DNA sequence: GTCTATACCCAGATAGAC
DNA sequence: GTCTATCTGGGTATAGAC
């Protein structure tokens, strides 16, 4: 009879997270149109009607997922200024992206599928936010070039290169594990790839290879975040 | 009444190609599960039952598409030997991949979505063919290192880097065009990106930048190949 | 807030007339 | 070889009892 000390809305919050985690799995496996509300309900262990009660409809649920993904996406490379040390900022950029590929592969995959299919649910967001995001970053990189901090390079394609190479390890995980004959990535793999990418890019930019702390993922906390948290 | 000089099976062949081209479009937009046979039929301008007559079922049609994609995929980097000139082989590798991203973006996208979703229709192929493909290539690159033709580097991740950076321009086309504020890629863009990638990679490998013929796509022939040929 | 039952629609696939 | 009509299952969404 001891009434649990859940603060109001705690149950709803937990249900929300369970449903989002289940939806993430299903959307990765079958895409937006190919995923059924029933399969999400089954995986989350709730009746199908409850998902409609919480999220209204499938498009809404999917958009909630995309929003939580874009939120994390926007945190990387947010501390870049003309006065920054390029080696510091770029190595942390590459490293953060690699860590995200390791810790949140499904988020990366859902984003990738959304873009590949023409970004039907994300077009507005892209044109509103992405272009200015890019303009600001490339302007800073160009200022580094003008200050002779790095060798001249096309800043836009440099960012595309870092995006593509790091996200590749999340999105094409299946192919990479098959080809390299591994069962799963280990933290050491993430370190090795991060060094590989920094090595190639920094050589071209005329930067010294930085010393990096090895990547050690935090042991999964009990309920601080759901296991497959939306990115 | 002049009986057309179509060789036997010509009509069937044309129908096949139309259906495959329509299927390619639909599978890119909606994924395997999300695509309906009706929408493929509508796009191809044939009754739905005919597709079942030609391809038996959806999975079969999809696999036919994947096979034609893998066929083209396998042609690149097929002429690599320990005696080859690394600068020549690698620059043509990068260039071919960039040209494929330009000429066959949908093929790249379908392949990407298949891998992202866990390669349910391609797993067997991957484990049978891909690992030996990779072993052979990385062995040759390692031999170049042993011969001091290029600076030491991890051959496997070098190939991943070329795959990811080149395919990115096909798969993430929507995002890239939005961010760079373009309506579509031009042949000049392909040249510029190719040079960008060769520049960075060759600098790290200690190779001279090669002279490259500019990329000029052949003017679309009338019926030599369907407009949206399967890769 | 929760879940059963159901309305309504569209999917893949095939039978069978042409 | 072609296409209409139809079978059967599963989809989204909601009404309404609990």
UniProtKB/TrEMBL annotation, chains A, B:
<dbReference type="InterPro" id="IPR050109">
    <property type="entry name" value="HTH-type_TetR-like_transc_reg"/>
</dbReference>
<dbReference type="InterPro" id="IPR001647">
    <property type="entry name" value="HTH_TetR"/>
</dbReference>
<protein>
    <submittedName>
        <fullName>TetR/AcrR family transcriptional regulator</fullName>
    </submittedName>
</protein>
<feature type="DNA-binding region" description="H-T-H motif">
    <location>
        <begin position="36"/>
        <end position="55"/>
    </location>
</feature>
<feature type="domain" description="HTH tetR-type">
    <location>
        <begin position="13"/>
        <end position="73"/>
    </location>
</feature>
<dbReference type="InterPro" id="IPR036271">
    <property type="entry name" value="Tet_transcr_reg_TetR-rel_C_sf"/>
</dbReference>
<dbReference type="InterPro" id="IPR013573">
    <property type="entry name" value="Tscrpt_reg_YcdC_C"/>
</dbReference>
<dbReference type="Pfam" id="PF08362">
    <property type="entry name" value="TetR_C_3"/>
</dbReference>
<dbReference type="Pfam" id="PF00440">
    <property type="entry name" value="TetR_N"/>
</dbReference>
<keyword id="KW-0238">DNA-binding</keyword>
<dbReference type="InterPro" id="IPR009057">
    <property type="entry name" value="Homeodomain-like_sf"/>
</dbReference>
């Amino acid at each position: 009879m001891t009434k649990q000390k859940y603060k109001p809305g705690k149950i709803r919050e937990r249900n929300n997270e369970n449903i989002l985690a289940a939806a993430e799995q299903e959307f990765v496996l079958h895409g937006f149109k190919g995923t059924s509300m029933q399969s999400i309900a089954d995986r989350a262990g709730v009746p199908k009607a409850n998902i409609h009660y919480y999220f209204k409809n499938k498009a809404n649920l999917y958009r909630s997922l995309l929003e939580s993904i874009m939120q994390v996406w926007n945190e990387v490379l947010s501390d870049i200024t003309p006065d920054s040390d390029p080696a510091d900022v770029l190595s942390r950029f590459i490293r953060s992206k690699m860590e995200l590929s390791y810790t949140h592969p499904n988020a990366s995959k859902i984003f990738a599928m959304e873009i590949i299919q023409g970004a039907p649910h994300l077009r507005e967001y892209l044109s509103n936010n992405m272009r200015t995001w890019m303009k600001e970053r490339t302007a800073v990189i160009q200022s580094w070039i003008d200050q002779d901090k790095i060798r001249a390079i096309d800043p836009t394609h440099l960012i595309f290169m870092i995006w593509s190479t790091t996200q590749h390890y999340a999105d094409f995980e299946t192919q990479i594990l098959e080809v390299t004959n591994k069962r799963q990535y280990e933290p050491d793999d993430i370190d090795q790839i991060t060094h590989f990418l920094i090595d190639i890019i920094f050589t071209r930019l005329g930067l010294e290879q930085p010393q990096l702390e090895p990547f050690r993922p935090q042991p999964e906390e009990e309920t601080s975040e759901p296991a497959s948290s939306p990115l």
